[in-house]
Amino acid sequence: MTDRTDPELQPTLPVEGSQPVIRRRRGSRTKAAAFIRDEIASETYHPSGSVEIEVRPAVWTLAHKGYSGGGRLDVWGYPDADTALHDGAQLALECGLDEDPAIVSLFKRKKYTEILEQYEQRRPGHILRVQASFFVLGE
Predict the structure, then answer these.
(1) pTM
(2) Residue 54 forms beta bridges with which residues?
(3) What is the spatial distance between Cα 45 and Cα 24, in angstroms, rounded to a whole number?
């Protein structure tokens, strides 16, 4: 049930039926909406030279399966790939890669993808990945 006393909510004219439709004001959704963006879901290259691109709403995620949680997979959402890669590389450093000067140098040069790859190579069975997670919309 919707709390109609919430100042963030405002009734609008009903679209169908006799119940008013409650919509959040534009400003109240901006934080969540900043995480959901259209990303390229697939690209199909045809022999004719044309390219078919499918774009779907997605959120960037950082997934980590490591020392904590007895094999638990932790997933965090990010508004963009760059921020997720930065935080993933920082997490890799905090998980022990900061003892390697070459890895620290990669971090300073913003080679975050290489750091994530090194993390997984040096720790078999552990996962530290950044990827777009696409929403499946009902039809």
Answers:
(1) 0.69
(2) 42
(3) 41
